[in-house]
C-alpha cells in the first residue's frame, strides 16, 4: 500500500478530470460549456443549438444568425434563468415562445428584427426582472397590456426602435420598474402623448440618456426633448380642447335655436289652422 500522501493528489486529479469530462458532455458543437452555462457567441449558428445540457441556467447565443427560437426546445431548459440572444435575426411572431421557461430572470433580445410585442409574448415570464428589446428597428407596436404579467420587471429597455407611441399604463402599472430606456425612438408628440410625458415627469423611474428622448413628429416639434415639452404641449392641447368646446357649444346653440324656431313655426301653423277651423264653424252656424 502506498503512502497516504499520494492518494490525495490522485483523487484530486480524478475529480478534476471527471469535472472536465462532464463539461464536455452534451455541449453543442462550437460552443463553450462550463458549470450551468453554455456560451455560443459568434458561432455563425443558423438555428437554435441542440444537445444543450438540461440543467443549463445561463445560455448565451449572442452574435449569430438565428431567426427562430423553438418553444419546445426552450421548454426543456426548465431551469434557465439567463438568456442572451443579442445580435441575431429574431423577428415576426414570438408569442408563446417562452411558455416553458417560467424561471427566466434576464432576457436580452436587442439588435434583432422584432416587429411587435403582444400580451402573449412575455406573459409566461412571471419572474422576469430584466428585459432588453432595444435596437429593433422594425419594432412598431407594444400592446397596452404587453407586460401585465411581468410585475417583477425592474429594467426595461425599448430604445432605438420604430415606436411612435407607448400607452402610459403599459409601464405605469409595473410596480417594481426602476429603469426605462426610451431614447432614439420616433415619438409622435401630439395630445395623445401628453399623458405619457406627464407620467415621465412625475415618476421615480430612471431614464438613462434622457436628453436623447426626443420628438420625431410633428414637424414643428422635431428633435425637441420630451421631458421639457410638457408645459408647451399642455397649453397647446388645452387650447385645442377649448376650441373644440367652443365649436361644440356653437353647434348645440344652433341646434337649440333651430329646434326652437321649428317649434314656434309649427305652433304658429297649428294656431292658424285652428283659427281657420273655428271661423268656418262660426260661419256655418250663422248660415243655419
Automatic annotation (TrEMBL):
Keywords: Cell membrane, Disulfide bond, Ion channel, Ion transport, Leucine-rich repeat, Membrane, Repeat, Signal, Transmembrane, Transmembrane helix, Transport. The keyword Hydrolase does not apply. This is LRC52 protein. Residues 1-21 form the signal peptide. Residues 26-58 form the LRRNT domain. It comes from Heliornis fulica. One of its GO terms (molecular function) is transmembrane transporter binding. The chain crosses the membrane at residues 246-274. Interacts with KCNMA1.
Amino acid at each position: 500500500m502506498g503512502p497516504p500522501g499520494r492518494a490525495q493528489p490522485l483523487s484530486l486529479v480524478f475529480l478534476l478530470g471527471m469535472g472536465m469530462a462532464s463539461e464536455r458532455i452534451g455541449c453543442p458543437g462550437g460552443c463553450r460549456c462550463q458549470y450551468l452555462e453554455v456560451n455560443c457567441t459568434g458561432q455563425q449558428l443558423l438555428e437554435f443549438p441542440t444537445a444543450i445540457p438540461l440543467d443549463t441556467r445561463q445560455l448565451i447565443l449572442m452574435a449569430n444568425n438565428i431567426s427562430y427560437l423553438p418553444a419546445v426546445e426552450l421548454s426543456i431548459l426548465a431551469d434557465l434563468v439567463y438568456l442572451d440572444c443579442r445580435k441575431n435575426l429574431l423577428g415576426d411572431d414570438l408569442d408563446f415562445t417562452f411558455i416553458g421557461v417560467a424561471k427566466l430572470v434576464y432576457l436580452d433580445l436587442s439588435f434583432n428584427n422584432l416587429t411587435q410585442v403582444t400580451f402573449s409574448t412575455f406573459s409566461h415570464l412571471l419572474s422576469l426582472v430584466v428585459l432588453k428589446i432595444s435596437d429593433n428597428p422594425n419594432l412598431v407596436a407594444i400592446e397596452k397590456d404587453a407586460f401585465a404579467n411581468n410585475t417583477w420587471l425592474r429594467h426595461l429597455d425599448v430604445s432605438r426602435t420604430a415606436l411612435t407611441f407607448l400607452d402610459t399604463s403599459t409601464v405605469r402599472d409595473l410596480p417594481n420598474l426602476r429603469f426605462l430606456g426610451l431614447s432614439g425612438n420616433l415619438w409622435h408628440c401630439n395630445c395623445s402623448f401628453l399623458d405619457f410625458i406627464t407620467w415621465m415627469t412625475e415618476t421615480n423611474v430612471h431614464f438613462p440618456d434622457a436628453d436623447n428622448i426626443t420628438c420625431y413628429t410633428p414637424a414643428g416639434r422635431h428633435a425637441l426633448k420630451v421631458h421639457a415639452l410638457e408645459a408647451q404641449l399642455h397649453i397647446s392641447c388645452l387650447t385645442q380642447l377649448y376650441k373644440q368646446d367652443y365649436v361644440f357649444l356653437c353647434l348645440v346653440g344652433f341646434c337649440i335655436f333651430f329646434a326652437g324656431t321649428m317649434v314656434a313655426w309649427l305652433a304658429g301653423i297649428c294656431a292658424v289652422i285652428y283659427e281657420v277651423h273655428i271661423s268656418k264653424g262660426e260661419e256655418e252656424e250663422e248660415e243655419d
